[in-house]
Design a protein that fits this description.
Blueprint: E1 8-9, E2 17-18, H1 30-41, E3 45-47, E4 52-56, E5 59-62, E6 68-70, H2 76-81, E7 95-99, E8 102-106, E9 111-115, H3 124-130, E10 149-154, E11 164-167, E12 172-177, E13 188-194, H4 196-201
Parallel strand pairs: 4-11
Antiparallel strand pairs: 1-2, 3-6, 4-5, 7-8, 8-9, 10-13, 11-12, 12-13
Length: 205
């Protein structure tokens, strides 16, 4: 659970925790500040005092900005928001329909509904397959760009000049030392994201 703030964990190794989706949360809208402070007060969000940099790998420049991560893992935020909800996981929706009574969601075995509102966070190409044609919108023409996520653990501390970096590189776009985040494992763990154009070329390999 978590969508763009998903975390990859292991049932066999409690230290195997990687925020392989969005690496952190930052905001520029003052209205979102209220949510950030509320999550901080609830203990689900922590300020990450990271040495954050950007640029070419041999000419990195420091970025000064406030960034936040979930306590222990980024999907803690989603878990907090869903704590009072009834969540159905491992359930594939086959069809979505709208009637005057509301929204209905059908699986292969059962139908859920009616619901007053429907919030869909699927990529447009997947959502298009679920909705009737009369509900199609221009958003279905939006093209998503894929990336690959590399999750690495080293036996010894890895030499570095940063905790996270946005990289101007033909293959890599982002590098992060997960260990530097607050309330994380002491194991030397790194997440690397590839550049979208490289991922498009190598997506099916």
């Amino acid at each position: 659970m978590g969508g763009r703030i998903s975390t990859r964990i292991s049932r066999d190794d409690p230290d195997w925790i990687f925020d392989h989706g969005a690496p952190f949360i930052q905001h520029h809208d003052p209205r979102f500040e209220l949510w950030v402070r509320a999550w901080e007060n609830a203990g689900v969000l922590q300020k990450w005092k990271a040495n954050l940099m950007k640029g070419k790998i041999d000419a990195l420049e420091r970025i000064d900005q406030d960034i936040f991560v979930g306590t222990s893992k980024n999907c803690t935020i989603a878990e907090h928001l869903a704590k009072d909800l009834q969540i159905h996981t491992h359930t594939r929706i086959k069809n979505i329909r709208y009637t005057p009574k509301g929204w209905f969601l059908r699986t292969a075995e059962v139908e859920f509904g009616p619901f007053e509102k429907l919030v869909a966070t699927l990529p447009p190409t997947q959502l298009k397959e679920l909705l009737p044609e009369r509900l199609h919108t221009p958003i279905f023409n939006v093209k998503f760009q894929p990336i690959h996520a590399l999750l690495m653990r080293f036996e010894e501390e890895f030499p570095r000049s940063f905790d996270a970096a946005k990289i101007d590189h033909p293959i890599f776009s982002y590098i992060c030392r997960e260990t530097s985040k607050p309330f994380r494992s002491s194991k030397e763990q790194w997440t690397v994201h590839t550049a979208p154009q490289w991922s498009i070329q190598h997506l099916e390999e």
